[in-house]
Amino acid sequence: MANMSGLGIEDAGPQLGRNLTYGMLDAIGRAIVVGDYDGATFPTEAELAKQHGVSRSVTREAVKMLTAKGLLSARPRQGTTVQPTTSWNLFDTDVLRWLLERQFSIDLLRQFNELRVAIEPEAAALAARVATADDIERVNAGLKRMERAERGEDDTLESDIAFHIAVLRASRNPFYAQFRDVVSTALRTSIRFTNRVKGRTANVADHAAVRDAIAGGNPDKARKAMRSLISDVLDLIDTAKPDGAAG
Amino acid sequence: MANMSGLGIEDAGPQLGRNLTYGMLDAIGRAIVVGDYDGATFPTEAELAKQHGVSRSVTREAVKMLTAKGLLSARPRQGTTVQPTTSWNLFDTDVLRWLLERQFSIDLLRQFNELRVAIEPEAAALAARVATADDIERVNAGLKRMERAERGEDDTLESDIAFHIAVLRASRNPFYAQFRDVVSTALRTSIRFTNRVKGRTANVADHAAVRDAIAGGNPDKARKAMRSLISDVLDLIDTAKPDGAAG
DNA sequence: AAATCACATTTATCTGATTTAAATTGCTTG
DNA sequence: CAAGCAATTTAAATCAGATAAATGTGATTT
Q1: Nearest by CB to A118, which of B60, B65, B119?
Q2: What is the ipTM of this complex?
Q3: Residue B74 to residues A15, A166, B43, B60, B108, Cα–Cα distance (Å)
Q4: Are A146 and A239 a contacting pair, CB within 8 Å?
Q5: Which residues of B touch A130 (CB under 8 A)?
Q6: What's the CA gap between A83 and A80, in Å, rounded?
Q7: Cβ within 8 Å of residue A233, ≥6 positions away
Q8: What is the pLDDT of residues A202-240, one digit of tens each?
Q9: How far lies A164's CA from each of A22, A125, A187, in Å?
């Protein structure tokens, strides 16, 4: 049962291993996404249970959850098989987390931000049309946190995330709000990267432009302001690694 | 258990009820999304099993899958509870299907297309930059099917869907490709609606403009062409029911 | 060569007991 | 009376072992 796959980070986190089933979900999910089963045949239900030292019930429930997330598929006689990545649910929080646990990939970072450049400007435009006073207040609160962070009184990253999520919510479209996790994940990764490339501080003024456009009810301005924010990051990424250059 | 919510389409489809667990997943999932449990307390594991005439194992596995999709949450002593819609995974194929099974809502239709107007134009722009010959061939194939459909030799809806999905794929970004289901679902619903409002046939020429821009490597043109396609649908929806009009 | 049948393998399902987590209740104590 | 603490209780979590159903493989028959 050699479970010592590298660093000493055993305790998966807050409420992930809160019971055997979720612990197993996390372990197998990570293993699949990281690629441990590439080329190899996936163990049978009985083997999995033995390997992880749990009962078959626990195993089956973990496998069923991974099936629900699109990572596995099970059929009698054929066995349980890892599904191609095209059928993984990439917007699932767990899947996103596991994706980030494999080696840092600038490709993934770019794909994240290519998605953001579609979603967030449009969310901002929508917000400029339909946001309620409460919505705008949340956007404002995010911006204020960023200003405080600039003075070292708050966390730069977390306040940035709060701002972007507030805008998503202000679009009043549940599909946009759903990008909560993608955006915060992308931001966490992006900022680490952009900080490495050049010591860029989060541009509070540019964010304020987005807020102003939303509060002022100007969709086009909001779209453009948000787009420029994200385009900056994309440009930075393309600078580090232009178009189709191989890894 | 009055399940007679309209038309006589009882058999859920191809491989949904392929076994007890999936049948139960579908039944409970639909019930939750349709709102059968709003306000009511969710049954315990034992009650659920009895109600559906299956064992607790089957029940537990179905509940675990619904948990993985964000619809349920289970804790000892507290019981199993329906989660707020904000934590549902709206990009899950099953959840999308269940969403459409509740009464037709023009709000949902608008939200779908508000998402499309963000995703698809950007996917087209991306495709114009990075699509391979194969990708373009698939887009072309979709367009040709639409032309044949115009002459009554193919299905209008299915060829339209094929075109849009080919563009998503051509973006070479797995996150965009993931919108496969959302887009086809949205199209199926949109087209039924637009046909009802006015006898509009799918505008093959406008679609050809998208293809040309992608094949010609012109991102801005591709973005604009695709955007105008979807904006047309959005305008139609807003005409039927302007901005924030109630119910 | 095609159709059929028997078999082996793996998931699917059931049953019933045991364990663990966490609200609630009620008792004790300051 | 309020605060803290322990017993109770409820529901999920886990285990064990058996049986059923599905399905690919290969032998057998036609």
Answers
A1: B119
A2: 0.88
A3: 13, 29, 11, 10, 28
A4: no
A5: 243-244
A6: 9
A7: A113, A116, A190, A194
A8: 589 999 999 999 999 999 999 999 999 999 889 888 887
A9: 30, 13, 9
